[in-house]
């Protein structure tokens, strides 16, 4: 699913609870995502390995998601920041 | 210590090298290719052509990356394969011995077989050198003609439009990519192309290439029209590079025939990627996937079997995601049985499995901005085309991949097209647990 960060509340929700996740089977390794990441995360490598982008410097700006010509990337709520269950 | 040779540095060859290196850290692995650039994103050439990325961005891994397998590279053309002596002859390096060999030689564009087809201004989009050639010539180009259906032709059209050229797009049939898209879907693409200034010519082929002193001056069409142009871009299909295997006596058809273990008719020779025509024991068909991810997977499976394992290649539902004239398009499973008059041989970015369609009824819905088509079987969905809004693709992929029983919503799907998306969404949520 493509997200445009159109509202402040949505932006805050994305910033606090969402990560960029990848679907490697869609990726053709063109590198548009890495090329457009404003802080230089190699997003493409994540699309190769299938790993969620856990980089703490990720701005969750959505630039890689918007630019990807194959819909490989999307935001998803992950459990990376949630409290472990007792 | 096992000696492995992989011929070809595309995604299948690279993936096999990576897998072999991780399985056998001490093995002697050699990658042989006549492409001096090694492994890069061939589908990414389309975005290099549009100017969205620079050339260096096509290379996923730096030379020193841990993901780049430590293998020996031999640059040259393989001129002979001898299965008896387990050797290949490389020009100019000489003879190399192997214990197990992988043929990942890929596919190459079919040229226009008419006089003038070899003029310098007649271009294709197979590799980096082709793209460099287009980009160097494009500065001197005012008008380009593009021929062919499918993915590569539209990439050429979009690339040349992005470079500011006037483009004439010649289509042999009624509409674009007619063995995959139905009319409403193709018209949506065509509307965007026209909006971008592309001049479409339906029912039109090239009758003659016009030139003066080896300089392209135009084309004459079968309708008698002369279109002046200084570039002719060809994307009429690709053909598997199987000549080496044929000359060595391996069994071939449209590609190199392999069993479900990706093994050719010679036990120590395997094939993967665009060149491999893979037998599927479930369907009984042998088919070629000209797709990136199946190429990656086939490379991995072939490497495992070369290394002595016994891993069958499980053909996943063939899927591709494309941006066609700016329209996000996902194609899943079996979606058509027609022939594309614009295409000969196979086509990059597509799968022969898309044409293997059992008895189905098409359920369609659409607006100006999006199109959805479902291929509805008796109990399951066989395929889908999603253009524009992509939210429905994940549910559809799961429903099709897992062959989820759609009997409860089948009538709904076939009766009314206004509830198509909602019905699929609801059924997916209900059945996913």
Structure description:
The complex is a heterodimer of chains A (86) and B (433). With 86 residues, chain A is α+β, with helices and mostly antiparallel strands. Chain A has a domain at 21-77: Alpha-Beta Plaits, CATH 3.30.70. Chain A contains 4 helices and 2 strands; from the N terminus they run H-E-H-H-H-E. Chain A has helices at residues 8-17, 32-36, 43-49, 63-67, and strands at 18-22, 73-77. Chain A has a two-stranded antiparallel sheet. Chain B folds into 3 domains: 3-108 and 238-306, FAD/NAD(P)-binding domain, CATH 3.50.50; 111-234, FAD/NAD(P)-binding domain (3-Layer(bba) Sandwich), CATH 3.50.50.60; 319-431, FAD/NAD-linked reductase, C-terminal dimerisation domain (Enolase-like, domain 1). Helix content of chain B is 24%, strand content 29%. Chain B has 10 helices and 28 strands. The chains are: A alpha+beta (86), B alpha/beta (433). At the A-B interface, helix 2 and helix 3 of A face strand 23 of B.
Strand-helix topology:
The complex is a heterodimer of chains A (86) and B (433).
Chain A (H helix, E strand, L loop, with lengths): L7 H10 E5 L9 H5 L6 H7 L13 H5 L5 E5 L9
Antiparallel strand pairs in A: 1-2
Chain B lengths: L2 E5 L3 H13 L4 E6 L11 H6 L21 E4 L1 E6 L4 E5 L2 E4 L2 E4 L3 E3 L12 E2 L4 H10 L5 E5 L2 H13 L3 E5 L12 H13 L3 E3 L4 E7 L2 E7 L4 E3 L2 E4 L3 E3 L2 H5 L8 E3 L10 E3 L4 E4 L6 E2 L1 E2 L1 H15 L12 E6 L2 E7 L16 E2 L9 E6 L4 E6 L4 E7 L5 H9 L5 H9 L4 H12 L2
Parallel strand pairs in B: 1-2, 1-7, 2-3, 7-19, 9-16, 10-11, 10-16, 11-12, 18-20
Antiparallel strand pairs in B: 4-5, 5-6, 8-17, 13-14, 14-15, 20-21, 22-25, 23-24, 24-28, 26-27, 27-28
Helix pairs in contact in B: 1-7, 8-10, 9-10
């Amino acid at each position: 699913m493509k997200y445009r960060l159109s509202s402040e509340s949505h932006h805050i929700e994305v910033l606090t609870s969402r990560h960029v996740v990848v679907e490697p089977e869609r990726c053709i390794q063109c590198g548009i995502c890495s090329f457009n990441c404003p802080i230089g995360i190699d997003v493409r490598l994540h699309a190769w390995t299938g790993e969620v982008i856990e980089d703490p410097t990720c701005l969750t700006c959505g630039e890689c998601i918007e630019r990807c010509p194959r819909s490989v990337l999307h935001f998803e709520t992950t459990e990376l920041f949630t409290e472990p269950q007792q | 210590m096992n000696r492995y040779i992989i011929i070809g540095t595309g995604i299948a060859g690279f993936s096999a090298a990576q897998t072999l290196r991780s399985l056998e850290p001490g093995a002697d692995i050699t990658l042989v290719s006549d492409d001096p650039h090694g492994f890069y994103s061939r589908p990414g050439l389309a975005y290099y052509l549009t100017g969205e990325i620079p050339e260096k961005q096509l290379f996923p891994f730096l030379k020193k990356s841990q993901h780049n397998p430590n293998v020996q590279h031999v640059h040259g053309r393989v001129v002979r394969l001898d299965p008896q002596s387990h050797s290949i002859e490389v020009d100019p390096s000489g003879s190399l011995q192997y214990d197990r060999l992988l043929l990942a030689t890929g596919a190459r564009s079919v040229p226009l077989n008419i006089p003038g087809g070899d003029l310098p201004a007649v271009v294709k989009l197979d590799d980096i050198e082709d793209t460099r050639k287009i980009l160097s010539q494009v500065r001197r180009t005012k008008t380009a003609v593009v021929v062919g259906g499918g993915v590569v032709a539209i990439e050429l059209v979009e690339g040349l439009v992005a470079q500011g050229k006037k483009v004439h797009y010649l289509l042999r049939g009624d509409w674009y990519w007619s063995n995959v898209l139905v009319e409403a879907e193709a018209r949506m693409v065509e509307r965007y192309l026209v909006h971008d200034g592309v001049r479409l010519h339906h029912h039109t082929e090239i009758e003659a290439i016009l030139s003066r002193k080896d300089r392209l001056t135009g084309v004459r069409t079968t309708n008698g029209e002369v279109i002046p142009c200084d570039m002719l871009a060809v994307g009429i299909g690709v053909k598997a590079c199987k000549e080496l295997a044929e000359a060595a006596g391996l069994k071939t058809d449209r590609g190199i025939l392999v069993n479900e273990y990706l093994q050719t008719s010679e036990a120590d020779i395997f094939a993967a990627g665009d060149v491999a025509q893979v037998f599927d024991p479930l369907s009984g068909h042998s088919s070629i996937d000209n797709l990136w991810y199946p190429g990656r997977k086939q490379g991995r499976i072939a490497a495992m079997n070369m290394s002595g394992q016994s891993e069958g290649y499980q053909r996943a539902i063939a899927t591709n995601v494309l941006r066609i004239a700016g329209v996000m398009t996902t194609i899943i499973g079996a979606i058509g049985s027609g022939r594309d008059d614009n295409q000969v041989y196979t086509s990059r970015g597509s799968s022969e499995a898309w044409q293997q369609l059992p008895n189905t009824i098409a359920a369609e819905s659409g607006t100006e901005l999006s199109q959805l088509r479902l291929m509805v079987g008796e109990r399951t969905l066989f395929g889908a085309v999603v253009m524009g809004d992509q939210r429905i693709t994940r549910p559809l992929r799961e429903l099709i991949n897992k062959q989820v029983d759609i009997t409860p919503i089948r009538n709904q799907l076939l009766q009314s097209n206004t509830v198509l998306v909602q019905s699929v969404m609801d059924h997916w949520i209900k059945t996913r647990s």
